[in-house]
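Loading example: each entry is read as two labelled lines plus one structure line.
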Amino acid sequence: MSAIGDRSGTPPPPQTLLDSASVQPVSDSPEPPARVRRRRHRSLLPLFLLAPAVLLFLLFTVAPGGYAIYLSFMRMKVGGGLLGDQNPTQVFAGLQNYHAAFADSEFWHSILRMLFVAVIGVPATIVFSTLFALCLDAKRARLVGFARLAIFLPYAVPGVVATLLWGFIYLPATSPIGGATFDYFGSRSVFFSVANVAVWGVLGFNMVVVYTSLRGLPRELFEAAEIDGASELQIALRVKLPLLAPTLTLVTVFSLIGALQLFNEPNTLKPITNAISSTWVPLMRVYTDAFVTNDIYKGAAASFLLIVLTVTATVLANAVLRRISRRSER
Amino acid sequence: MRKTHARTAAVLGLAVTAAVPSVAGCSSSGSSPASSGPVTLAFVNWDGGMQAVVDQWNKENPNIQVKLSKPAGTGYTLYNKLITNNAAGTNPDVTEVEYQALPALISNKVIVPVDQYVGDLSGQFSKASLAQVQFEGKTYGVPQNICPMVFFYRKDIFDQLGLTAPTTWAQYAQDAAAVHAHNPKQYIGNFSAVDSGWFAGLAQQAGANWWTASGTTWNVGIDDAATQKVADYWSNLIQQGLVSPEPNWSPQWSTDMDNGTIIGWVSAQWAPNQLPSIAKDTAGKWVAAALPAWTAGDSTVGIWGGETEAVTSNSKHPAEAAKFVKWMNSSAEGVKLLIQNVDVFPASLANQSQDALKTPPPFMSDQPDYNTLMAQAAQNVRTFQIWGPNANVTFDAYSNDFAAALQNKSPLSGALTQMQQATVSDMRQRGFNVTTS
């Protein structure tokens, strides 16, 4: 099929007559219009294939996003009566909701807390996933298949389930790791406890990404290094690691975005500890605004602000990391 | 090509013939939807044992079939879902609502008045119960139960320690110290930052009035003197380490309740319905006593929880829905089923002397007069004048600010101030007239 499509104006060689006949039953029609039609088909095909994805994206991401932005400029004004149930109306609020989010110190605190968790979690994810991948790729590694699966498995556990599990591990009454003597929900330790759950969950995925990229590197380089007398450790640090730079950039960006979207872990831990409030991280605050205190307008404004911050952070991180990796390649 | 046409025609033909009987079926029963043909009502409720009550109704009412479902989340998780779904029109016909959440649901037009269907309820319920469901002269449900607060304690352990159930809060503090002195790892109870309704009940007993209304003006007094007194009392116990700061319903708390680390629970009438899942190994070891009083001999108590069934504005069959609600919460038969299956203490006055109440809930098998105690407590219930239209905001502030106070070991009265501010500013922002005392 593709052979026919690729052919330009040259007359068809005899052996393809049969092919073209099967495609075009009406073989006596003039050639040029048929070719034009075929070309138009070809240009429509990608559109057709893209349509479902684009449609779903428009329907479930762009449209609700647009509606959320619209809502962020509105507010509910109660109607008459003691309970305000006589004709409550949605009125234009201007920048009031954004102003409320900006002026609320709790909003910035929630961002700070998220950053605390990110500062612990992101480097831990990168370092450990790279370490594990390098270990698995090492020449003397044994039980690679089993180890890879074991490290990856936590990623398959849903976040809420993983957090419940860790909740039991942290709580003094049920802790197998000394929860009775160490307070895992102290005002400082809680950041490590939350980061730990998150890292445990995503480590396996990132490890597989790094490992796959390691396996794709040309083996001759390592052999050459070995012949030159480099030790296994030197190969890992001096040869493999620099070649991994683009992958590590990618993994870092993923982890950063993941950190900005922190929600499941603290939200699931909240009912079992006094250390986590309903506005602990930005997404929990958005959730609380929209679905607990029933102010969907404020929630929309906060989530839009959050999107702007996330996109900015991602672009910045990407630019910085790309520069770093380019420098290290030189 | 021809084949395809033929096939299409055949399919169309089939479709047409299939459609004919259904069109006929529609027209034969279409004209009066309210009276003829069975009606199915969707009912959302999270109480254990409710299915038995619904089954009995369904058996007796073939034309009004009720379909019970448990919500994915209880309390405010459910109410906020109802508020969100209201706009989409997908709410069930009947829903469980705790009293404190009714104003918010009315304010958002999620539920409708049922006066025209249930008639005058004034002879059948106490004023305190009706005050929970009536607003501005309209009735939004038939009260199901009264949940006076009571004190539950492990009688076996209290006996060992030579203690009796405390009758005053001063004695509760002394007992707390005695328990803790005997075993530093044991506590008489916990202060829970996740149950705002619990703290509200304690404030009610002390004489607080978080919300009052006159005309269309609200007065908010969450940090009033009575509530400050309660906060300071518990602050003192927490500071001395005499009560545990663990939140209720956590695995930690369940374990402690089950293994005798926590030996008392300031709770409410419905506790025996929950205790089997909290402390399953302790059946028969708990005993209920009157809530400790601020002054000896004063038997005033607050409530924690309590619910009505409400009819939603999305319901296409409000008359039938209200009929079911009235049967369940006020008829002798419905209430008897509730007592036997859901362990309720009924709000309906005539049913408070039912024979079924002579049997205690299974978990309290050693306390045959359990419901006599509840009947006495129910007569001395004191509530706020009215629950605010944004009690959800107040409750969210409670769980954040009290938890933070417990975490940072700072006085609880500071958290009260924050609750008051959060509530007032939210009400003003929504456009209510608010004053503060």
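The beta strands of chain A are 74-77, 89-92.
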